[in-house]
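Async update (no meeting this week)

Hi team, since we skipped the sync, here's where things stand on the single-chain job. The sequence we agreed to prioritize is pasted below, unchanged from the tracker. I ran it this morning and attached the output directly underneath so nobody has to dig for it. Comments welcome in thread, and please keep replies under the output.
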Amino acid sequence: MTDDKPVDPADAFAELGRIKLSEIDLQGVLRKIADLAKRTVPGAAEVTVTLVQGERAQTAAFTGDVALALDETQYRLGHGPCLEASAGAGTLSLPDMARESRWPDFARRALDAGVHSSLSVGLPVHADVTGALNVYATRAAAFDNTAVELAEVFSGYAAVTLGNAHLYDAKATLAQQMQAAMQSRAVIEQAKGILMGGRHCSAEEAFKILTKLSQDTNRKLRDVAAALVDSVQHRGQA
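Output:
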């Protein structure tokens, strides 16, 4: 459950800057951005964060089900302010859904859901990922010039935070993959050593034996090597 207490913009920007990427995952960063935006932008009732990669758009964080449903309506229709803001990294204001002519289908659905105005600001997250901060209001003309400018500044801070989180997440994943690869290499070398000692064969011949066993049993090479190492260790402990 999020805290609905309003936040001073300076405090919100500082909070975004204080996020420790080593202590929070990318999803946590996205939720923090949506929650802070709802409490910072005057007139905001609900907030979502849209992320677009290639042809795929998704709502990565949201503060309410109505806002999520309106985002997904745009994805189904294939058009709408959140998608256009994501594509152009600009700002799109819909001050009155009752008079909205650019996306009439979306506007009708918004009115049915009790949303009378919205604001979407582009988020250039990464070279391959774009997005938008979407702010929904329950009254028309909820966002004056000050609110729009504040949303744009907030989005700038959020884009930097998201970009850093994306890079950190990618590096962390790469580090985990490298560690797993090193561990796999180590156990394979152990298994080769066991075969070389037991069968008096070369390293190349030992590797061929492991590879053939992997193919014959339809198991990963690392798993075959680990099973051989484990079996030898168990015999030694018996």
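Quick observations from my side:
The two ends are 54 Å apart (CA to CA).
The longest helix spans residues 145-199.
Reply here if anything looks off.
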